[in-house]
Design brief:
- By secondary structure, the protein is an alpha+beta fold.
- It has one domain.
- The protein is about 15% helix and about 35% strand.
- The strands form two sheets. An eight-stranded mixed β-sheet has the order 6-5-4-10-1-2-3-7. It has a two-stranded antiparallel ribbon with strand order 8-9.
- The longest helix has 17 residues, at about 120-135.
- The radius of gyration is 19 Å and the shape is elongated.
- It starts with a strand and ends in an 18-residue tail after the last strand.
- The model has no long low-confidence stretch (mean pLDDT about 90).
- InterPro entries: DUF5675.
- This is DUF5675 domain-containing protein.
- It holds the Pfam family DUF5675.
Length: about 170
């Protein structure tokens, strides 16, 4: 299984992304902004290809196991990120909730005019979590590719200038 997290727009404090599973759009994501020097809990992870596994220990795992006992089988752990540890796909709404992790949600606000916001996060998480966790539990390798959006280079037509009559 391949998740693709495509970064759409970097704001002052956060980045808005689109998340796909095997080529189909599933939700949006919000993560911290890019910093030249990593600031723990405030810097988004570098682009790349990473494996996702289930992590069944730690405080966040215990919280989610209590909140979602019928669904939760471990945190969706994005592994082997240079200079990062314990990065999960999880629930939240704004960059203060990320701790360096991508937050998922079904709606977004424009982070070009203020801080970004991802809404309906629990709804999105509860929809995508079983798809990803069940694939891992079946023994399928699950990967996430994190990239910037690539906009095509477009040459705009030159405006036609009419000569003024004197």
């Amino acid at each position: 299984m391949l998740l693709q997290q495509i970064r759409l727009n970097g704001g002052v404090n956060d980045t808005i992304d689109a998340l796909y599973i095997d080529g189909s759009f599933v939700c949006f994501a919000l993560e911290d902004d890019e910093d030249e020097i990593k600031v723990p809990g405030q810097t988004r992870i570098p682009g790349g290809l990473y494996q996702i596994k289930l992590r069944t220990e730690g405080g966040m795992h215990n919280d989610y196991a209590e909140k979602y006992p019928d669904m939760h089988k471990g945190m969706l752990w994005i592994k082997n990120i240079p200079n990062f540890e314990w990065v999960y796909l999880h629930i939240g709404n704004k960059h203060q909730h990320t701790a360096g992790c991508p937050l998922v949600g079904d709606s977004i606000s424009n982070n070009s005019i203020g801080d970004g916001f991802v809404g309906n996060s629990t709804q999105a998480y509860k929809r995508i979590y079983p798809i990803i966790a069940d694939a891992i539990l079946r023994g399928e390798k699950v990967w996430i590719s994190i990239t910037e959006i690539e906009l095509p280079d477009v040459e705009l037509p030159k405006p036609k200038v009419k000569a003024k009559k004197s």
